[in-house]
Design a protein that fits this description.
The complex is a heterodimer. Chain A is mostly helical. In chain A, 75% of the residues lie in helices and 4% in strands. Chain A has one domain. In chain A, helix 4 packs antiparallel against helix 5 and helix 6 packs parallel to helix 9. Chain B is mainly α. Chain B has one domain. The relative contact order of chain B is 0.14.
């Protein structure tokens, strides 16, 4: 049964992605009616929404490399759309995560402050590099995506890391909290350590969000869980919530520069939100590790394609 | 682990969740309405829909030069155009965190939590700075 669902999903993926892969960068884009690419984009983001939720990664990290590699849109508009996809997904999930106390305001605020400072720098850096030569962005995106693939393959989360006491910064900012573990009904009390080290990690997260329009949820979780010692559920939820703060700053810059094309942004946001709803319903029926491996494969392929585009291959 | 009494979630967390929930719905509604007006042609766009594919593969500066699309806050005066109308919804979505942080600022100030007041003020400054379009890059 599970394999049957998985097979259908893969078939869907291939059916919808194949035209964009085959037609990308060919004169076909001029033959297709104006609504052709936005329609393919809508279905692609719908699938990204489904697979993103099931693989436990944000939509932006899948969207940006796929859209820059297989669609005719310029990377400037793809990054602008990627930011709004990440922002929209994060805003949609935030109320539930905050109400359940899985996302922590006190943990997200300092992390997001560091990340958003560097997201602003990253957004300008990205637009500047792209103006110099889009191949710089395309190439570094390829390298980043392939690095993410390796991080996803080798980083192992720790469910409930042992944190005995926080450091000075943790105490000063009162970074701690309580949530109820629904599977056991028990209250989990948590705090974090290595806060300063963690904040350095968010410098990278912010830069990547700004330069490429990537949500960077994959990196947030690793920093919050493995470096700072937050329980994995808190790390995942806080990461998702913190993106709404970080991406807001970078999103304004892209909007002010005119890099938000409604014809790309609106179908993508609607597609990914609808897909995420379906994905969350399918989640209990499929094996997350299979989906995760498949997504890693797609990401690797998109990363290589980005690199090839940068070198004009 | 620390003493039990040391662990607590921010009291403002639930209020923050409610603001995001309501503003997100408002933003999405405005976004979709703007897009429908654009798609149906009820509001004429700067760039005709059938010509859009000629421009979306251009670098940003060339796209702006050829289409005259709005930058900065110009879109407000051009909301009567189909391709500018959805930007109102985009702006609402991008403003949600600013509104939430303004509320947090007053709440933390009332409670006298100075480190969190400081974080809120710096974050608000950054968000307003990027929204203001005051910072520019030289090409």
């Amino acid at each position: 049964m599970k394999q049957n669902i998985l097979f259908k999903l893969i078939l869907f993926l291939i059916t919808f992605l194949l035209p964009s892969i085959l037609l990308a960068g060919t004169p076909a884009e001029f033959i297709m009616p104006w609504w052709g690419w936005p329609t393919i984009l809508f279905f692609t983001t719908f699938l990204i929404g489904i697979f993103g939720v099931m693989a436990g990664i944000g939509g932006g990290v899948l969207f940006v490399p796929l859209a820059t590699s297989f669609f005719p849109f310029h990377i400037d508009f793809v990054r602008g759309t990627g930011l709004f996809i990440a922002l929209g997904s994060s805003l949609a999930a935030a109320p539930h995560l905050l109400e359940k106390n899985l996302a922590s305001l006190k943990l997200a605020m300092p992390a997001a402050l560091v990340a958003s400072t560097f997201a602003i720098i990253g957004a300008f850096l990205g637009l500047w590099l792209s103006a110099l030569n889009p191949a710089y962005i395309q190439g570094s995106l390829g390298v980043t995506i392939i690095s993410i693939v390796f991080i996803m393959l080798f980083a192992k989360n720790s469910e409930n890391p042992s944190v005995t006491h926080g450091n000075y910064l943790t105490q000063l900012l009162q970074i701690n909290g309580i949530y109820t573990e629904e599977t056991t009904g028990k209250e989990v009390r948590w705090t974090v350590h290595n806060t300063t080290k963690g904040m350095f990690g968010f410098v990278i997260v912010g830069l990547l969000a700004g330069i490429f329009g990537l949500g960077a949820g994959w990196a947030n979780v690793a920093i919050l869980n493995l470096v700072m010692g937050a329980p994995v559920k808190v790390a995942v939820a806080t990461s998702s919530f913190a993106l709404s703060i970080t991406d807001s700053t970078a999103a304004w810059i892209y909007m002010n520069k005119g890099a938000v094309l409604p014809m790309l942004t609106v179908p993508s946001m609607v597609g990914i939100m609808l897909g995420a709803k379906i994905g969350s319903k399918l989640l209990p029926k499929v094996k997350p590790s299979v989906i995760r491996n498949m997504v890693i494969g797609v990401l690797f392929f998109a990363g290589v394609r980005s690199l090839m585009k940068a070198f004009g291959i | 682990m620390e003493e039990t009494s040391d662990f607590e979630n921010a009291a403002e967390q639930q209020l923050y969740a409610r603001i995001v929930y309501h503003m997100n719905h408002l933003g999405l509604f405005v976004l979709v309405v703007g897009f429908v007006l654009y798609l149906t042609g009820m509001l004429a766009p700067h760039v005709p829909l059938e010509d859009l594919h000629k421009y979306w593969s251009l670098p940003l500066d060339q796209y702006l030069e050829k289409t005259g699309a709005p930058t900065g806050w110009q879109w407000i005066s051009e909301l009567g155009y189909g391709d500018a109308a959805p930007l109102l919804g985009v702006a609402v979505l991008a403003s949600i965190t600013i509104v939430c942080y303004l509320v947090l600022f007053f709440k933390f100030l009332q409670r006298g939590i100075r480190p969190l007041v400081a974080i809120t003020v710096i974050e608000l400054f950054l968000m307003l700075l990027s929204a203001s379009n005051l910072i520019q890059i030289a090409h």
